[in-house]
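For this section, I looked closely at a protein sequence along with its fold in token form, which I now present.
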Amino acid sequence: MAILVLLWGALTPMAAHADNPPAGPIYIVQQGDTLWGIALRFNVSVSDIEAANNLTGTDIFSGQHLIIPGLNGLTGTLTAVPVPYGQTLTSLARQYGIDEALLRKLNHIISPAELYAGYSLTLLQQDNQTSYSARAALAKGETLLELAVTQNTDPWTLEQINHLSGTWDGLPGDTLVLPSGGSNNPNGLPPVILSAVVDPLPLTQGATAQVKVVSSQPVSLAGSLMAQPLHFYPSGANTYVALQGVGAEAALGLFPLDLEATLQDGSIQSFDQLVPITSGNYLHDTTIYYVDPNTIDPKVIDPQAAQVRALTATSTADKYWQGIFTSPASLYASLTHISSPFGIRRSYIGVGTNLTLETFHTGMDYAGGTNQPITAPAAGIVVFAGPLVVCGNATYIYHGWGVYSGICHQSAIKVTVGQRVQQGDLIGLVGSTGRALGPNLHWEVWVNGVTVNPVQWLNETFPH
């Protein structure tokens, strides 16, 4: 029985009479679709779709059934599923019981690299089509017959549902779908990695990305995202999590996310796939700010910026925080508001000089009067407490797993380096020191050496 999930809501009556089957598969219009977009997706002309469906214009509605011409010999319902990280054309063809060549045709895929994580893959759902939800891998030296016996099936069934050329065609490490039993989550990952989830997908400028990997046995896990090393830490039985910030000015497009699992016998299993990075849609503040030249002079600020980057680049397995972060302005929340969000683009000019600076806001600002109390957004250890040119009187707290909070512009610092703080502890007072245009609480969150939007940490629990 078909188990594909249709993504476009309830079905509506077919456009063609049952006695006259349509000359092509059916596509169910989803919200936001246009006739031009559908034509582009299936590489046909708008006029051909209009003719095949007796349309008198280009207006369509969500849930409408459209015949897609040009796919001769195919019947069924066309639907779409997002490609999770860890899937390949071969694994998807096996999972959904679809010929791989047909998947390539439906999606106009020429190179396997085009199938990035988050790709919207077109599938053809047909009557009596079977999908599979279990997998197993051929071990080195293991035959298809031996695998079949351990999985309570036969080699000819495995050959058929995995589109093999024969019972001899299985290769060591090849992940095969099973008619039943086995481990869940059929995918194209190496055998030792049962699942690898990237959240969110697509990645967004300024976001905190979580990569969660579940393995079949203890492994040493490494990886990289955008050439930035990932640090994986245990988060349950054979479960590992890495957190990584995506820069607010990160390039847009597709970038590799690599995984490498070292097994206890020293062997290595690896996987890589492209993931998309999309715009954070940050605004540009049209105001030009005139500031103390020292606060934008590269000779002054670059060494201190390097100091902060080095400070926040250290990642250890220690994890001090629990649950969602709280606002460092929580003790005076009734008197404040967010005066400047994360990521907004800004322009500065040094008073009386030709110095200029185009940059983005690395944190979020809470407005508030001088000497209002500032609290620790989460538990951690103070790793810096002192003056900086741009940040003013600054406090940096290490929360563990490569996650840091930075608090800037304070009138007074109430903690010392090495001090352990708990969520809600008083750590300083609001001020206007450094490159500040008035009293405000500037809060940064750093994740593996990258500043991210703190709002995400106020709304989501990490790890999750």
Observations:
- DSSP finds eight helices and 30 strands in the chain.
